[in-house]
Amino acid sequence: MIATFRIPGAGRLKQAETARFSFDGQSYAGVEGETLASALLANGVHLVGRSFKYHRPRGFLSAGAEEPNALVEIKRDSARRTPNVRATVQELYDGLTAQSQNRWPSLAFDVSALGDIASPLLSAGFYYKTFMWPKSAWKNFYEPRIRAAAGLGVAPDQPDPDHYSARFAHCDVLVLGGGAAGIAAALAAAETGVRVILADEQADFGGSLRFESGARIDGQDGFAWAQGAVAALKAMDNVRVLSRATAFGYYAQNFVGLVERVSDHLQSPGRELPRERLWQVRAKRVVLATGAIERHMVFADNDRPGVMLASAARTYLNHFGVAVGRNVGVYTANDSAYAAAIDLKKAGVGVAAIVDLRDHPTGSVIDEARALGIEVNFGRAVIRAGGKLRVSSMTVQPKNGGGERTIPVDAILMSAGWTPSVHLFSQSRGKVAFNDETKRFVPGTYAQDCVSVGACNGTDGLSATIDEAYAAGAKAAKDAGVKNAGANTVKGIKPKVDASESWSRGMLGAAPGAGPDTTVKAFVDFQNDVTAKDIRQAVHEGMRSIEHVKRFTTNGMATDQGKTSNMHGLAIAAETLDKPIPQVGLTTFRAPYTPVTFGSIVGHARGPLFDPTRKTAIHPWAEPQGAVFEDVGQWKRAWYFPKAGEDMHAAVDRECVTVRKTAGLFDASTLGKIEVVGPDAAKFMELLYTNPWEKLEPGRCRYGIMLREDGFIYDDGVVGRLAADRFHVTTTTGGAPRVMNHMEDYLQTEFPHLNVWLTSTTEQWAVIAVQGPKSRDIIAPLVEGIDMSDGALPHMSVREGRICGVPTRLFRMSFTGERGFEVNVPADYGQAVWEALWAEGQKHGACAYGTETMHVLRAEKGYIIVGQDTDGTVTPGDAGLDWAVGKKKTDFVGIRGMARPDLVAKGRKQLVGLKTKDPKVVLEEGAQIVGDPKQAIPMTMIGHVTSSYWSENCGRSIALALVTGGRGRMGETLYVPMPNGTIEVEVTGMVFFDEKGERLNG
Amino acid sequence: MAKAVANKIAPTLVERRPVLAGQELSVTGVTLAVLPTAQRISLRAPDASVAALSKALGVTLPRKPKTSTAKAGRTALWLGPDEWLVIDEAGKDPLADCAELTVLHSAVGISHRNVAISVIGPAAAATINSGCPQDLSLDAFPVGAASRTILGKVEIVLLRTATDAFRVECWRSFSDYVFTFLSEAAGDAAA
Amino acid sequence: MLLIRCPYCEEERPELEFRNAGEAHIARSADMAATSDDDFEKFFFIRSNPKGIIYERWRHMHGCARFFNAVRDTVSDRFLLTYKAGEPKPAKLPGAAE
């Protein structure tokens, strides 16, 4: 059965109704390829939503992206629920499920519509005025209720199961808008052979040719010409044609963001299809062919379902084959609505009357309307729409007052004129100019390499539009640098316009039906429920700038960004202020042009692609061993290796004891590594680290400290000198990239005279730390070419040789205080060498240990961790590392900073050890320290705990802390106030275990 | 120059386990493959050393930005005004070739630091452009073009080996991200 | 996303490859240790933060990895000029008369 309002033979779709869909639980039939709006109208459904503030019943205003009213929720399944979808954009597919929003309990009876009656309480600026008293009521009463009542739609509550893709693209000419102008510009540019991208937000190209039945180009119907031209463009190798692609943002240097809706129109999109694709296009030239948007008439109750733009009614008829009513009225201040009336009349729809606000308009469309027997009234206004859930009548009155006449209608088609879509032009930082004659803002001063053509440029008439666009397309291609047109590009012929429609002018602001009676609701902004009265009130309450009026009334601040309302709002404000429109100004257009999903901005960056997860070469061994991992930056590091039944503390205690008793293996691969090579390598090291390096012999290592210029510790690590001109520098895991950047910065910009180069080798080497009294016994059997005796390989030395037959840089060094080694092998051998060392270790009872044990063991020895025990305000002196600063050096980064008055002053915070009086109590890292726990709150805090652990080796808790004048407080009792009571601590030295350091050779 | 101990590719007693070894993915328009291991150095040198280094390496180091040269299984990529990535796929170690040179330079072995993934097919450029902001048209990025750049959230080195073929080099621990990224992008690249 | 001309790569490349590195032409003293407190303050802490033309350092971090200098208009966000590290501050700017 053909739906009631579908007109046989009209429109361009195959009218077989193949798509079943539901709206608010009611089942309907529609045609694939039409919009949800078209399908609902075909079934006689106009009431589709409730307004934001007053919960007034609303229908369709438009047939496109500018739609303020018809926002629905589209539900594919429990996770795929998209709120605030414009029914005028959503394409129908079989099985589509849509729901209305912002109503309870039902669309036809909405309890909150009482707000319409109570609307004096909700007038302009009510946000700022109504809820001021009593103060305490805001949090408990007003805010929760406003939050519950406000907002459009309901956000989905499950993770988005769809995926989104992204593409960077480059072209010579980017044409935005696929109407007659855009197509003509694209043809002209493409014919030169340059790379062209043509994008349009609609499913079908053609723009207003979709409804302009009077347009004929190259001997055919305008829309048919558009389809042929786009097919020709698609066939060209140098052209990319994007439909359903909205250019939402125009950024610096012709960088344009577009979202292509790939599968929202499909019944069951394959898993391989993204839902949307983000195009980030860099274009040498941009042609803006974004058209114009029709404005509504501002009169009382102009928001009743069935009251819509004339061009929308024409689109529904001429493109989709749907009549928006059986007996329509027309209210206009310009010619274009006549064409709608004529088309509808010819299709057999009754046209009750045309009401034209103009006094003496003339023109062929008017004559034609009359010839068709349509009643035409000049100098009259529709002062009120009748009906509630659907318009039922229009009340007409001479515009200067007089007798009223009420005409029954089931739809009102209105047109106040056309507003050029300068949104993208404005986003490009171009300045608009007001044309006083045509009363519209058009592109004025350009800020980027772009050009506007057609309706968005204020150009009227199809012929002029195509002339302008074709020339602009050719010029854009030339300016972008046309190469010699290849043999395969056919020199094109400019499209010839045989017949066109043309109109301009119209009116801005409130029509006579919009007041001054302040009880009427004549809507300017439908989505935010802003009336003509609200704008006037804003001015009367002192708003002068349009920016203030906008914010006070929220005009233009809804998700449609005022596409239909901005000019009316501006005109009403200007009239009330008694100023010319340009002096009141136009609000700035900002991206996005239409709402953009989070998904399309996130693109691929979710799940495993949210952030890289870096794993070491030894990770595949640690994982099946049951290691628990912790995140250190992007790295996954083995945290501890629990055995069956062990919790973290048990595992760490066992690992700590085992390392000191026999040995432990630790994956230190994530340490940053930088190879510093060149004849001036030592000179460079002298400048970048506090320590002296010139005299460090090849084969020896040194613990180095790197400062920033301000004298504070930036990084540290053990550095091995492999040769006179080659250092193997290690950095902290987290510091590797910034240390490399810091070193490159100084090398390239401050010390470019030095012959030295830096290469990151972090990932070249896997690093296996073997620490403990048995460490040498474990390593030695696998090593070739290195004498491992204490004499030949003392603490803090490095040798190159082979282990398990592969090259190694073998460091004798210790971050545990035990005899220790760090075995560097090329990363792909890391796992195999680890396994060989593990097998050897098993013979000695060694364990694998993780970062937690590493932290405990180093704390037992008072070795600091940069970034944990230091925080960017700690000097070497504060950290007790003065010994590492070369006293005879005349320059290094930070040398002057260290001498700053504040850094040499007494009373600085110094790193010390803390022992709790109760050895079983483990302090919390970050806990604050006070001298007198009985002082009044807020207490004077003299420091904080930086590191704190249970030390099984010491049989007690240990901690490091930064304390004011700490080294002068040895033995002093301090206090750590905590929620459960104050903890007494004693200030101690930083070394808790093997104070003499004998175990390094043990 | 003092030499780092060069990897002589001697028989080893333990297994080499390259990351992602042998991984492949083929979809309409593009095939991804993790390439076999190769010998690589990061080479740094002033202008005056370029001729001697070119001779020792057997491949002329390119001097023009965003270019590469190749000879006998060895490719030299211009990465910066004094920086080249030299990749040898013929089993010879370029580190050894530089070891005896006395001209000013820095050669550091990075064979294990980098992993290479080939991206081949008519949709190869589109696949990479899912996360790489550079213009990969043949005019802007011709065959032989080479550049360090960005893919998604990580740094890569990109080399165009043929009209429809690229070599993507990244650091070892980023290879999983890069392969996953390219795999996801490949599925949408034919569009 | 801006396009920035790298003076070493000799072409414009996408901003994602670059990293800003603060104001340019702030010389580190050759005799750092002898710098007065006032001079150190000027060198390390004080930056011009102009509305308009700024001389600043950038690094082509994910490209040729070189640091270089740029002249940018902080109002329009337009780059007027880029030049290699170590080159003197340009006496004349292109389009400066605008």
Automatic annotation (TrEMBL), chain A:
Recorded superkingdom: Bacteria
Coiled-coil boundaries: none
Keyword flag DNA-binding: no
Chain segments annotated as transmembrane: none
Keyword Chloroplast on entry: no
Enzyme class: oxidoreductase
The enzyme's E.C. designation: 1.5.3.1
Keywords: Oxidoreductase
GO molecular function: sarcosine oxidase activity
Residue span, Aminomethyltransferase C-terminal domain: 909-994
Occurrences of domain SoxA A3 (ranges): 521-601
Residue span, GCVT N-terminal domain: 618-889
Pfam family name, one: Fer2_4
Domain FAD/NAD(P)-binding as annotated: residue spans: 172-447
Family classification: Belongs to the GcvT family.
Record-given protein name: Sarcosine oxidase subunit alpha
From TrEMBL, chain B:
Domain of life: Bacteria
Keyword Nucleotidyltransferase: no
GO molecular function: sarcosine oxidase activity
Alphabetical keyword list: Oxidoreductase
Oxidoreductase keyword on record: yes
Broad EC category: oxidoreductase
EC number: 1.5.3.1
The protein's name in its UniProt record: Sarcosine oxidase gamma subunit
Organism whose genome encodes this protein: Mesorhizobium escarrei
UniProtKB/TrEMBL annotation, chain C:
Top-level enzyme category: oxidoreductase
Molecular-function annotations in GO: sarcosine oxidase activity
InterPro entries: SoxD, SoxD_sf
Record keywords: Oxidoreductase
Enzyme Commission code: 1.5.3.1
NCBIfam families assigned to the protein according to its UniProt record, in alphabetical order: soxD
Protein name: Sarcosine oxidase subunit delta
